[in-house]
Amino acid sequence: MEILNGKKLSQDIKAEIAEEVKLIKQKGGKIPHLAAVLIGNNPASESYVRSKVRSCDFVGFESTLIRKDDSITEEELLEIIHELNTSDDVDGFIVQLPLPKHIDEVKVTLAIDPKKDVDGFHPVNFGRMAQGLDCYLPATPFGIIQMIERYGIETSGKHAVVVGRSNIVGTPMSILLSRKAKSGNATVTLTHSRTKDLAAEVSRADIVIAAIGIPNFISADMVKEGAVIIDVGINRVEDESRKKGYRLVGDVDFDSVSEKASYITPVPGGVGPMTVTSLLMNTLKSSRKEIYG
Ligand code: NDP
To answer: Which domains does the chain have, with CATH numbers?
Structure first.
């Protein structure tokens, strides 16, 4: 069994990006600039955004954090998005989800200019992805594809089972693995809460992508010997022995499943760091005008 070390891989990719930024600086070019909008005080969102800003610092990107209280109106948030869309300096930006209940997430996502949508959530980018056109891939699936590619994991002709069908993880993952492209060509089954016999579906998988949000949901008895296991879940479970009073676990029961897997991602240190790195890769693409010119 080999651990898919997302932490190490993301450090390697960030070092590559940092080298590119150095070259840009030497040539007097424009430094890539990522902005993040954070609304309210959700501790998980704060920690994600902090790590995004830290990663920008690490690679030498410019970053801007726009923090607003959760009393912000939808109109005020849309105005901030408009300013970011039209800023010459900002190459890409993200609006950290979830948003307060009085703000329509769909409206906000649609307001982001697809050219600056480095999270890859806008339907224009999603549609382009589905048709195999150049686009900003959604950050988490992009990170998983990077991981699969860089570890040389074969996907062609394999049976992949994706558990969870969200717009940001499960559904795009199912599209990417089934497309006629590198790290694609898999036969994909997309499962969800209405799937009749989930255990039977997962047990047929050569590759399992777990994106459900339920701690340790995928157990060893559901998994085929030698399967590749990608655990997207990030769940907090109480743990009095930790200073914070909790620890993070995935959707996969790592201890038992790792005994059967050929490759497995840990939580933390697996998919999470790759997601942040994908954002940087998308921002670099945007600053080079690689996709939309
Ligand atoms: P969502 O809550 O949007 O979607 C969860 C999906 O799981 C749904 O499709 C749901 O089915 C399905 N599901 C729920 N319960 C079951 C069940 N008992 N059996 C089968 N399917 C089930 O989650 P996200 O995709 O946003 O996130 C999933 C997990 O990944 C979370 O833990 C999240 O924190 C984590 N995450 C991690 C990221 C990272 O960078 N590592 C990035 C994004 C998310 P249905 O559609 O029928 O309701």
So the answer is: 27-113 (3.40.50.10860), 139-273 (3.40.50.720)
